[in-house]
Design a protein that fits this description.
7 strands; 229 residues; Rossmann fold; 2 domains; four-stranded parallel β-sheet
Length: 229
């Protein structure tokens, strides 16, 4: 059976969200039917957005160290439940000899026939254009919120990272309405804290959860069955 390495810690809650979804969506009748996971919940990795915006330490060496640890522990391939960290994807992929799955590419594969999406993400993800670089190759237009609305998204993300419970007071609906007014009804929750937040806030809509997509595709890559959703 293949073993999956999860390069995590960005943040810990998002890492557990991925592992929980892998368990949740695996068609298993007993323990041995589940996916073998190796998780490096490396909380010492510096903030990715801060670095990309020129305000913090480069996290690259920490990311490479985690990837090498997972490979040495016996992972057959690596997944990384952090959107912004995919800014370093090419370097990470070349640092190991095992496959390193690109979460953003996995999301793009799910969007057959879709021409335009809205993206909720960190400023680091917006600035680095890691979604545009992959989606534009598939002729999918990526729309991002205004600078003012980006601040709302960032506030929500960092409240989840801090473990704060008062996230309902954040007006994330104004950001969603921004996309709806542009005629965009498919919105990517492009930071792994956002699916956690949206579930807590019980927000309903045509939201695309990258963590769920990565979890399901990880199960398939291992050769396990996915439960009927």
């Amino acid at each position: 059976m293949k073993t999956v390495g999860i390069l995590g810690g960005m943040g810990p809650l998002a890492t557990m969200d991925l592992s929980n979804k892998i368990i949740k969506y695996t068609d298993a009748k007993k323990d041995s039917d589940h996916v073998h996971l190796l998780i490096d919940n490396n909380t010492k990795i510096p903030d990715r957005t801060a670095y990309i915006l020129g305000e913090g330490e480069n996290p690259e060496k920490y990311l490479i160290d985690s990837a090498l640890k997972l490979e040495a522990m016996g992972a057959d391939f690596i997944v990384m439940p952090c959107n912004t960290a995919h800014y370093f994807y090419d370097t990470l992929k070349s640092s190991v000899t095992i496959p390193f799955i690109n979460m953003i590419d996995e999301i793009a594969k799910e969007l057959k026939g879709v021409k335009k999406v809205g993206l909720l993400a960190t400023k680091g993800t917006y600035y680095s254009k890691i979604y545009e670089d992959i989606f534009n190759k598939r002729e999918i237009e990526v729309t991002i919120p205004s600078i003012e609305l980006q601040e709302i998204v960032m506030e929500l993300i960092y409240k989840v990272k801090k473990g704060e419970n008062n996230i309902d007071e954040i007006d994330i609906n104004s950001v969603i309405e921004y996309f709806y007014k542009l005629g965009i009804d498919k919105i990517i929750l492009g930071c792994t804290e956002l699916p956690v937040a949206f579930e807590k806030m019980e927000l309903k809509g045509n939201f695309l959860d990258p963590t769920k997509i990565l979890a399901i595709n990880t199960i398939k890559l291992v050769g396990k069955k996915v439960i009927k959703i």
